Amino acid sequence: MYKTILNLVAQGLQKPVPATGLGVFRIAFSLVILQEILFLYYFRHLIFDPVPYLDRASPMLHFFLLVWLAVAGCLVLGYHTRKAAVFNYLFWVLFVCFTPMWQDFDGGFDQLMTSTSFLLIFLPSERALSLDNLRHKLRYSVPGSPYQPPTQVTVLAYYLPLGISLGLLYFDSGLHKLSSEFWRNGMGAWLPPTMPYYMSAIDMSQLLNLKGFEQLIGYAIILFQFLFLPLFWQRRFRVPLMLAGATFHAGIILSLNIYPFGFAMLVHYLLMVPFRWWREIHDKLRLAQPILTVFYDQDCPLCNRTVIVVRHFDVRGAIDFKGLQSHARQYTALDAIPDDKLLTDLYALDGQGRLFAGLDTYINILQAMGYTLPLAWLMGLPGCYGLAGQLYRKIADNRERWVCDGACTVITAPPFEDERPFSRGYARYAATERQTAQRIAKFLVLVLVLQLNSTIHYGLLYRWAQRPADPALAILDHLSDSIINYSHAFLGITPHALYMHDHFAGYNHILALSYRDASGRETWLPFVNQEGRLLAPHWGRVQSMWANVAVTSHMGRDRLEKFLRKITAYWAMELGIDLKDADFVIKLKEVQVPMAWEDDLRHKNMAAPWRDIGVVQWRGKTMRVDIPGLDIEAL
């Protein structure tokens, strides 16, 4: 097996492809990270405080979230990309392993994010759509000798995230689905959107009520998950798999309230977009002819740097730069400018023959580029125009500070090697392409072994056989479980048994909360509504906390009280309720979660009545839960 993997890796390293798709993927994946950090910060008291606002978590957690937010911003922009990727991975491990995100607020996609974040450290995603490209152009270019960073990567940069983060996940998940009754009945895609805690706000009953269609989707998902890993790297299957996978995950986003998981999976399909499509998109964005000609001083380092910056962001090719020394006298519009003034400004000529100078040149550049038009309007506003003009004049009239002093020589050191984490050690460790292939192949073998350990342990032995009674086998079972904990934490390799029968079977009750004031008037907390749906923005990991940990088919009193304390304390502060003397009513609704088809189940579950079963009483910092006559353990 190792030799086969080694040969495949060696072939992949020898096949260069454009980096555009990898750059687009980096931006999209980083935006998913960015929104999740904002979500964590918004709910920081609910998630991290032992008792929201009453027993607070360390404020350093909030500080680390802000630092992580800046790191994610660097990933989006492609600024010091590899270093940002290292810190992003460390933050995922830190927050998932050492905060309540580990069990209480598992977002359902943390393992996927950890896995891909680890791979992103080593992927050359900065070679497209990044500020790192601009940094290297500015650093290694000199007047008359522009530097062009590499824009190609090996095809392995696309295959590794798809194979490890998606392919292994799908295969493991497919094995689990075979043990689930309602998945074997074809109802795997139908049941979750009919359960109020999981359904989205979009009413998709017209599709949910088509039994044949839902069975087709359910069986197609299982088939797709088993076919993805052996077929995704073959060119003729790439587009069909991409369209099918993107459709399935778009369906998750629309039908369920776990949109972060849906988006995290969906963005990986950007790596499957054919390279030809990116070239065609690029060609359609480019203009047939530039709409603005800009003249600059070819001997001015500052002007040359300006040209490099504008060209980097001019994705439409709307600006044509020409050196004044070489082209000035070819344009009659410039004849009226005295020779002693010609090199003191940046000039621009539009398609109508109008000449612009100084700040007006920059405003027209921003207008011509298209997507920067709002910034051009802002600079043209009264007041802003005057301030921007003064700043421009101050810089332009002091260009002597930017005169080349002889140090402007072409630097031949490969800049992107400097961006690799631990680049010098890596160069000694894998100096040749063969050594690089060997290291990657060994890593892939390790990942496969760890995935097989997880899949066999939980997907086969746990679901299809009894736990070992023999002491020696019990030790191996424990060792396997321990290895899974580490692979889960650091590589995101974990059982992917999402929405199985053992979670939904017997899940015939859901809870909601209301506040009862001194006059007896009740107000529903804006958490679970009268239909039983969790309201926005309590989706993602907050939904997972309530629907997968607090309220389940086999919930315990201690666990339920823990999260009742969290929810009531959090919303009391948000709504201005005084906890010195506050009562919250616990409501219960009975719902149906059948393993076989039932018509119009979504509406039936939403229309089911509520009944009061108990009260949460706050007296100062003391909380008591009173649920008379109800055996929680039997629910």
From TrEMBL:
It is found in: Endomembrane system. Keywords: Membrane, Transmembrane, Transmembrane helix. The keyword Transmembrane helix applies. InterPro entries: DCC1-like, HTTM-like, HTTM_dom, Sporulation_signal_mat. It comes from the Bacteria. It holds the Pfam family HTTM. The chain crosses the membrane at residues 21-41, 61-79, 86-103, 153-171, 216-234, 246-271, 443-465. This is Predicted thiol-disulfide oxidoreductase YuxK, DCC family. It comes from Methylomagnum ishizawai.
